Q: What sequence folds into this?
């Protein structure tokens, strides 16, 4: 006869062999039921009553198992660790049985840490793993990076998707556009960190610093692979959400916590206050003089589009002060500090990818030549606003000619475009936009989103044909081969065409027609826009 299973309970093989070898099957079954059934004389009168109600022995025994299981689970929290480990050994032998699985799961939840041999077994048993509590799963993930990666990958993809949707601003399930949503930079940092995705990631990591480190490694690797700046935002959001919820086991061990805290203070205030600059300088000097391990993380934190935006705002604020005070960029210590931080951020991908430990140097021409040119532009804007003086394109042309050689100058110039659009300075835009070469197609989507958001605030200004052509024909059209750019162009035209001359709309619309490389979604959006414009013309 077959032996019993590893916990000395007769299994299906035992019963099959018993019936195969017995002479009287009925007698064998009765004997088996007596030996393995509930041995309680008080139950004997109950069975006939259950029979009358059609309750089978199988149903009865399942209900007893459930009752006993619930009683055991209530008792488990009172037991010492040694007893729990003994019970886990017995429970794990029956872990593949659905009725007994909850006992094993509860024991593992109470055992912290769970013995490593069981964690390895759980990782190899998908059905058991899926039903484990988050406390047990964290311990499994700490020893199984691949499994953690499989769990976290779809959540990270969702985070990037949500960021893209914030930038696309307008795409809805019905294909129409909604432009009433707030611009990208207007969302408060703490509100960003209250998203469901951030909550999910925080719950997955819990108090486990090894998992937090693993998460940062994934984020850094994905940034290195995709160059997507949203991963830089996520790096800071993850650190600061643990700070928000006072989970010191995590954020206190992150060597970049204090640095990120001061940077986020600047983002919250939309200013880089003088009082935090000495502390930020200390971090910077320390990283490039004795703690190169933190350079990658500092660069990633500074590459966050929200951080770059605030530092650019502060640079322009400083330049305005210098225009008013008639001072030069080379003499301004705060300006040099701001430029260094922006430069570190825009070079972050190269620093991470090439494992650079040296400070990215500023071009001498940036401070000595290009920033003075930018100050001339700001001075011209001031004179134009106050005296109505005419613009000259010399300073802007020289600036634009430098963007192919200096990424920092390019970023400053693009921010100047945003400032000009926000101030509704049409004359400067009409002169400047056509001069920007097609080589600036490497512009990130954040810039286009913010520019379009500013242009959407204009109404009567679109009646000027030369302004329409400067924006659509001579600037945005150059980048329509990229789908994300075309989305924004269509988003803009969707709203402003009603303010534009009809002939101008007719001339511009074909320039925004999707090509073969564009998706069906964009093609459908263009078709809807064409119908919308046609209805407006007929009306």
A:
């Amino acid at each position: 006869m077959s032996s019993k299973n590893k916990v000395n309970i007769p299994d299906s093989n035992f019963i099959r062999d018993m019936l195969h070898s017995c002479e009287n099957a009925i007698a064998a079954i009765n004997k088996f039921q007596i030996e393995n059934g509930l041995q309680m004389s008080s139950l004997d009168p109950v069975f006939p009553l259950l029979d009358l109600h059609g309750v089978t022995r199988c149903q009865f025994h399942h209900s007893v198992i459930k009752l006993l299981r619930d009683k055991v689970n209530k008792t488990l929290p009172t037991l010492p660790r040694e007893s729990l480990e003994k019970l886990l050994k017995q429970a794990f032998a029956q872990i593949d049985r659905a009725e007994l699985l909850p006992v094993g799961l509860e024991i593992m939840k109470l055992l912290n840490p769970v013995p490593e041999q069981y964690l390895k077994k759980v990782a190899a048993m998908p059905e058991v793993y899926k039903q484990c509590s988050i406390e047990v799963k964290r311990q499994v993930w700490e020893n199984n990076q691949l499994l953690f990666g499989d769990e976290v990958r779809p959540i990270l993809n969702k985070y990037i998707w949500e960021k893209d949707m914030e930038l696309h601003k307008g795409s809805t399930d019905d294909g129409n556009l909604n432009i009433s949503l707030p611009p990208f930079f207007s969302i408060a940092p703490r509100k960003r960190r209250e998203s469901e995705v951030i909550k999910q990631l925080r719950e997955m990591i819990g108090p486990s610093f090894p998992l937090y480190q693993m998460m940062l490694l994934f984020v850094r690797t994905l940034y290195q692979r995709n160059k997507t700046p949203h991963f830089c935002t996520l790096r800071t959001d993850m650190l600061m959400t643990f700070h928000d919820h006072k989970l010191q086991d995590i954020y206190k061990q992150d060597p970049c916590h204090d640095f990120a805290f001061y940077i986020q203070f600047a983002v919250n205030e939309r200013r880089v206050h003088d009082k935090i600059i000495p502390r930020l300088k200390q971090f910077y000097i320390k990283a490039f003089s004795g703690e190169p391990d933190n350079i990658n993380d500092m660069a990633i934190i500074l590459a966050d589009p929200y951080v770059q935006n605030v530092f650019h705002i502060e640079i322009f604020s400083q330049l305005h002060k210098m225009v008013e005070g008639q001072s030069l960029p080379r003499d301004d210590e705060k300006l040099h500090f701001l430029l260094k931080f922006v430069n570190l951020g825009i070079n972050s991908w190269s620093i991470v990818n090439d494992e650079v430990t040296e400070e990215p140097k500023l071009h001498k021409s940036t401070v000595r030549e290009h920033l003075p040119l930018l100050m001339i532009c700001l001075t011209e804007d001031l004179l134009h606003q106050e005296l109505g003086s005419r613009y000259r394109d010399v300073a802007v042309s020289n600036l634009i000619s430098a963007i192919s050689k200096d990424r920092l100058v390019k970023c400053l110039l693009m921010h100047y475009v945003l400032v000009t659009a926000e101030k509704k300075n049409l004359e400067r835009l009409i002169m400047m936009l056509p001069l920007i070469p097609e080589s600036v197609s490497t512009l990130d989507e954040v810039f286009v989103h913010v520019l379009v958001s500013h242009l959407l605030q204009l109404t009567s200004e679109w009646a000027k044909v030369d302004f329409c052509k400067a924006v659509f024909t001579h600037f945005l059209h150059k980048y329509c081969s990229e789908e994300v750019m075309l989305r924004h162009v269509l988003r803009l035209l969707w709203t402003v065409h009603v303010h534009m001359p009809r002939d101008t709309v007719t001339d511009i619309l074909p320039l925004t027609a999707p090509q073969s490389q564009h998706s069906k979604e964009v093609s459908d959006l263009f078709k809807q826009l064409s119908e919308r414009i046609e209805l407006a013309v007929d009306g």
In short: Residues 509 and 536 are 14 Å apart (CA to CA). Residues 170-176 have pLDDT under 50 and may be disordered.
